[in-house]
Known about the structure:
Structural class: alpha+beta
Number of helices: 3
Helix content: 10-25%
Order of helices and strands: EEEEEEEHEEEEHH
Distance between the termini: 41 Å
Amino acid sequence: MTHWQKPPFTRDDVQITQRETLYKDFFRVDKVTLKHRLFQGGWTGELSRELFLRGPAVGVLLYDPNHDTVGLIEQFRAGALAEPGGPWCMEIVAGMIEDGETCEDVARRESIEEAGVEPYHMEYIANYLPSPGGSDEKMHILCGLADLSQAGGIHGLDEEHEDIKVHVLAASEVFAHLYEGRFNSAAVLLCLQWLQLNHARLKQG
Length: 205
């Protein structure tokens, strides 16, 4: 059995010898040549990795504790084209962090843009790396408490070709169908599991 311990290596145990930008538009792809220390001692030889640069992002799960409902959005996602159920995904509200913004700023902005709802209270849940094997994206997830009694309809920005449908669902219904495949992104699964753990506390206010 391995006991919990701090990681043996840090950023200083990686040497980047070359970095080349292969593509740059809304996102950027770099080719990075590097070497890193080995668990058994010594260093690797030089190796190259393509790195998809997305930067930090924020996702927010909308929850109405007074009506015990969850606000989720549904939209087309090109990365889900091969999914058996189709490329329209049930997700939490999300957006990229821009210069000078806090996580709460992004959560509030995107909640208004994508769901027409402004949370009155935020709780930070966690942060994680969605795909560290090939992307630098870091995702911060929050829960936004909001009045969802009037939420619904279609939202999104025309200039970003967004076509976002808002669903308000009973929390019990969402929990009952959590692992049946309708929720297929890490962010929504993590947030809904967190809500299950904190459900009673949030309902009590």
